[in-house]
Design goal:
Blueprint lengths: L4 H13 L20 H15 L5 H4 L5 H12 L1
């Protein structure tokens, strides 16, 4: 079974931030709601780049404020 982009990204975020992926909402702010710092963000982006064979730059990543920003960006590039 192939997992959706949303689930994969939420699992990656949860793994890096030690959270339950099912508790992560599309509207969660990476910093304010999830407590991610720059190191966490780097690890999340690196994992997603590896999983999907993408090249999200850290400059691009800084534009992702909420979870759905990242989900949308990845979805547009792999589908």
């Amino acid at each position: 079974m192939v997992e959706s982009v949303e689930i994969v990204i939420k699992r990656v975020i949860a793994n890096e931030l030690d959270l339950d992926w099912e508790q992560i909402n599309d509207t969660d702010d990476f910093v304010a709601d999830l407590g991610a710092d720059s190191v966490d963000s780097s690890l999340i982006i690196s994992s997603i780049n590896s999983y999907y064979n993408l090249s999200i730059t850290f400059e691009q990543a800084s534009e992702f404020k909420i979870v759905s920003d990242l989900i949308g960006w990845v979805t547009e590039r792999i589908e």
